[in-house]
Amino acid sequence: MFTMFTDALSEFRADWLLAGKAQSTIDGHLTLLRLLAQHDPDPDLPAARRWATSSPTLPMRRKRIQAVRAFGRWSESIGDNDFPWWQRLPVPTEPEKPQPTATLEDYNTALTRLTRPRDKAIVALLWGCGLRRAELARLATTDVNLTDGFLIVRSSKTGQPRIVPVPPAACRLVRRHLRTHTNESLFGLQPGGVCLMLRRNRLPSAHAWRRGWAVHSLRSGISEASVRSAAGWSSGAMVARYTKAMAAELALDEFQRAWAK
Asked: What CA dihedral angle connects 133, 135, 136 and 140, to 10 degrees?
């Protein structure tokens, strides 16, 4: 009599979160693993492969296989080995699409184009802090310390709070916005409102600002560890993903700075 692997999912989730990994990712994995259990309560490699490839879209096939591999890796690490074949289920490659990345020129253009102090402060925090749009929308006025130059993201994608440095230029623009703003919410917008404001003013998306912030920070000499901390990334994989397109240029900048010393 076998024991369904779903009995271990709550422990899998707890260990994932204890490791500081993203809550949204593990919740997505668990949703897919429960679907796999409905398809086959005790899957072997052929069954898992059939289930994964039954999805009509490549992105969903990737997500299904990633969920199975993540659980298999974890199960092996604790000695249960529910999916001993997990390494033989390769993740299909997905053609890379160009990822828009905001630049310093975009930032200067935005400050020229925007007229409302609120909107200028929003762009300043996106460019200067690399915030996700949901994190920016949730900021309260008490979360921003303009005197010491930092803000607190109380709830992020990983479920963990973090401290993010705020550059002086962004502090000045946020301070200007607060002269006429008295609400508890820093900007009084939902995430969709942030997106709408950017689109209405023909500006890069919040994600493009976040990528631009990462690239600009590394190019300016900020260490990868500090970028990871400020961004709320648990590993260097996300840094590499965000900066892959500019890796050669970043390397050139770094070597030239080293040679100039």
From this structure: 160
